[in-house]
Amino acid sequence: MSNIIITNQFISLFLKKACFSSHSLEVVRPFPMLNSITIYFPGKNLINIFTSNNSNTNDLIHTKTMRTSIRILGTGASACSYKHIPSAQVFNIGRNYYMVDCGETASLWFSRFDINICRLRKIFITHMHADHYLGLPGIIYTMDLLGATHLQVYGPVGLKSAIDPMLCLYGNKLRMEVEMIELKVGVSEMISFDDRLTVYSLPLVHTVPCIGYKFVQTDQGLEVPDKLILEHDLSDKDIESLEKGHRVGKLQPDQICVRHNQFNYAYLSDTRYCPELVPLISGCDVIYHETSFLKADASRAENTLHSTTWQAAEIAQAANVGTLFIGHYSRRYCFAKHILAFLNQAKDVFPYTMAANEGMEFDLRKGREVRYIFKTKMHELLCS
Prior knowledge:
disordered N terminus, globular, alpha/beta, nine-stranded mixed beta sheet
């Protein structure tokens, strides 16, 4: 694979030619036979564009609405930095949202990325370090103000005692029901099941009780194409009924819906290197594994019960996963200077690695053929 640094001038011309102003960029997963083009621009985000030797880059780029995806809200470790905010990710499954970790400023990014916060159903907290749960009060208050009625929050013992005092500062009694569910640590078991998503706990090892999560899509993987939504003037309720396999008027799900792969996704943050996780996540389409440190800082990772790029890639390789996302970057590293080091160290062991960054949205409909897009005013974001 070749990595090519491309200048801002090229990006401007490239986006202008591709007719981007505020559309979606979609990129296929990096296969060994594909060339990797790394587009980097100082002070902005990073994009990997993967093109085959005999294809045109523009052929891989088009706009698309995704309704089975995950949005990366935060990839930073501990304190916020200029480049990164604390950990947070949001699943979109048929316009129903599920969140894993909830670092501070999370509610802001719901608005920034036009995520309907009132359709947030469940939040899964890995552990009670502030950078993984301080965004909860803001999420809860915002949902309550906007008329949401119910939210489930899962996490280790200590969740209630940490959050309840913050909610008392609200001043008004919450109208929304907030159900907090404290989980066993050190075991793998099913902890949540509904019509969209089944969630299993995973045992992680950190300085405080910590839980990883494996998310398995429960529904049938049906999706109503945008064109047919407009053609039949379907409401959100109609779309949800069809995607659950129910008839709407004369419309039959098997006639109007397309079927995609049901995804499974594992989230592993924060943890030391844990080979015992391999059988629990074996064959996952995608895993997100923390990489707080580069390989050279392995001793520091061991002392703080975190992982390095090399260790995350070894877990992905051993588990035969489809794609590895790395993140939870320590602020000791300058993202602009070290991002290729993070990527290259992981790819030396597991070539199907992507460096997660704030704003990325990953398409989960293709199973192991995962793809990602940026979806927020590309031209302004890249070229300002």
